[in-house]
Amino acid sequence: MPAKGCRKQSKGNKRLKVRVSKGIGFCSGVTRAIKIALAAAGHADEVLSLGPLIHNPQVVEKLIGVGVKPLRRLGNGGKTLIIRSHGASPQVLERARRRGYTVVDATCPFVRNAQKNAFKLYRMGYGVVIVGEKTHPEVKGIRNQVGGRVIVVESSDQAKRLKFASKVGIIAQTTIAVDTFASVVAEISKRAREVLVFNTICIETAKRQERARVLAGKVDVLLVVGGRNSANTSRLESLCRTICSRTHHIETASEIDSRWFRRDSTVGIVAGASTPQWLVTGVVTNLRQL
Ligand code: SF4
Question: What is the predicted pLDDT for the residue at 2?
């Protein structure tokens, strides 16, 4: 039974009505990175990815089984190295090549666009601001495109406490919440003389957030399926929790607790960009048996 878009009543005692958000499954950037990695693995015993290829432990486990292994830091080279969809800085790419890795770049085109825009703003003389998480690999990669000369801002509250140049160029981490980006842009616009904004939020993230927001308003309980290390999944969870207080973040169906649901509850399911369809199907199957 396909999970996508389904709206079924469970056959178990709880008689749950299950609604799965449209557009779940891997985003295009993750699909592309996995395809590239599998193609590379087909030509070698083992290929390496710089960090887990995607932020989903269950998929990474499967990838390891077919020879795509995550690497914590660069070693002595000699193997194929996949740059994951989050991208990497030019310095890291250069270091990897110097050490003898065959670099295969699977940076998502949306991330590449954010990198290019950061560089463009820097060349145009703007003080570059990235709205995103300082420690996220994508943000680190973008930051290093301009030699680290950027300010990373996570929220409008934080923006209130910072000093900015008179000319500010703003871009977004591709998976940041649309509202967060808008509020930071509004805050900086009050204080800088000139502001140039590139909205680099990926369109797929924006759509996923919007669908999650709508679904959260229509259900009694909402399950957000995805890796705990996945920033975009955690963001979906916080977004949904503001609308549906009975929101739970799970990685797999085994984490479902039947006490979350009352008889005849309507349960919504949303999933992060790195959550495969089969994990969502597992959740639906489990709910139907409660
Ligand atoms: S969420 Fe968007 S930016 Fe991130 S990998 Fe997917 S398509 Fe690319």
Answer: 45
Name the closest-CA residue to atom 6, ligand 1: 29
Q: Quick check: is 2 in a domain? A: no
Catalytic site residue from 133, 138, 237, 251: 138
Question: Do residues 92 and 51 touch, judged by C-beta distance below 8 A?
Answer: no
The yes-or-no answer on residue 138 being catalytic is yes
Question: Strand 194-197 vs strand 167-172: parallel, antiparallel, or unpaired?
Answer: parallel
Query: What is the spatial distance between Cα 114 and Cα 171, in angstroms, rounded to a whole number?
Result: 7
Question: What range does the domain containing 56 cover?
Answer: 28-108
Residue 14 pLDDT exceeds 90: no
What's the CA angle centered on 113, arms 227 and 190, to 5 degrees? 90
- Strands 127-131 and 167-172, by their bridges, are parallel
Listing from the earlier edge strand, what are the strands of the sheet with 167-172?
150-153, 127-131, 167-172, 194-197
Both 225 and 256 in a single domain?
Answer: yes
Last residue of a domain, which of 62, 91, 108?
108
- Give the model's confidence band at 7: pLDDT under 50 very low, under 70 low, under 90 confident, else very high: low
Domain-ending residue, one of 64, 85, 108: 108
